[in-house]
Amino acid sequence: MSAQRRGPSPERLHITLPPWTDCSGVAIRLDVGAAVSREARDEVRRAVAEEHLATLPDQATWIWSDGSAEGGVASGGSGALITLPSGEERTTRTPAGAVCSSTRAELVAMRAALEEVQQLEDATSATPLVLCTDSQAALATLATGAGEQRTTLGAEIWRLLLAAPDRPTWLQWVPAHCGLPGNERADELAKKASSLPQAAAPVDVRSLTKAVDRAASKAWRDRWPDSFFRRIMRDRFPTPVLNETREDAVNVHQLRAGHWGLSTSYLHRIGRHPTPTCQQCEDLKCPAALCLVCREEADTPEHVLLHCPCLAGMRLRLFGNIHPDATRLRDGGAVAALARGCLRHREPAGYGRP
C-alpha cells in the first residue's frame, strides 16, 4: 500500500531563547502616542500616525508589513515593503498557511521581511531598523520578550531582531486603512500573497487546534433542531447572563431554550397546575394552559417574550418595537426584564411564582 501524501508537519518550538537575552536594543510600541479611536476620520488617524512616525529615524531601513487571512482563519497571505536608506525598495510575498490566523499571517510577514533585510546587510550593521505593522496582537506577542515566546515563529523573529546586536530597532504599531502609503502597499502585497500555493507553508499547532475546534463547533450547531432557541441564536453560542441574579439567569436560559419552569402551560402539562375540568394535558389550547396575564393563548416562552400584549410597552422600551425579531432576545438582560415583568403582572391576580 502506497503511503498517503501529507502536508508539512505542524511547527513546534523545541529550543527557546534564554530568559536573560538582552532585548534592550528593540523598542516595541503599541500606540502612536496620542489616543486615536477607530471611529476617528481617516485623515485624523493618519495625521496622528505621521506625526509620531516623524520622530523615528529617517535614515533607516523601513519595513511595512501586513498579513491577510480569509475570515481571519484560512488562506494566509503575508506581504512586506522594505525601503533601504538609499531609497531602494524591496517587497516580499509569502503564503502563511491554508489554516492560519490573521496574527500568524502578520508574524510570517515580519519574519520574511527580516530575513530579506538580513540577506541585504551584514550582521555587524548598525543601520537603524523601523518595522511598522497594524497588528497590535502580533506586537503584543513579541512584546513579552525573546525568552517568553511559545512558538517557533516568535522565537525566529526575535533571533532575527537580535542578529545585529548594535542595531537600534523599533517595532511600531500604526492604524490600519487610513491612507498611510506604506501600510496600504503592504496590505496589497498580503492580499496577493493569500492566493499563492499554501501546500508548503507549515501550520502551527495553535492554528490547527483552533481549526479543529471551529469545525467541530460548526458541525454541532448545524445539528441543532429547528426550535425557538435556534431562531434566537441562529449559529451563535449563548453568552453568560451578567449582572443578574441566579434566579434571573435561570429564567433567561429556560425561556430562550423554550421550556420555562414558571409558565402555566408547562406546569399544567406536568400536573402541577390542575383545574377542575382538566387535571393534566399537553394541549396548548386548553384553558388551563392560557397565559394568566392576557388569557389570549398559552404562555409559552415565545408568547411571553414576543407576543403577550401586556408586555408590549416593555418590549417597546427595550427593543424600540413591540414585535421585535427573535434574535433581539440574545440580550440576556432584556429577557430577564421581560420575565420579571410577566411575573409582576401575575401577582395582583393572585398568581405569583408557583
Automatic annotation (TrEMBL):
Organism of derivation: Amphibalanus amphitrite (Striped barnacle)
Molecular-function annotations in GO: nucleic acid binding; RNA-DNA hybrid ribonuclease activity
This protein's name: Ribonuclease H
Residue ranges of every copy of the RNase H type-1 domain listed in the record: 57-195
Top-level taxon in the UniProt lineage: Eukaryota
Entries under PROSITE patterns matching the protein: RNASE_H_1 (PS50879)
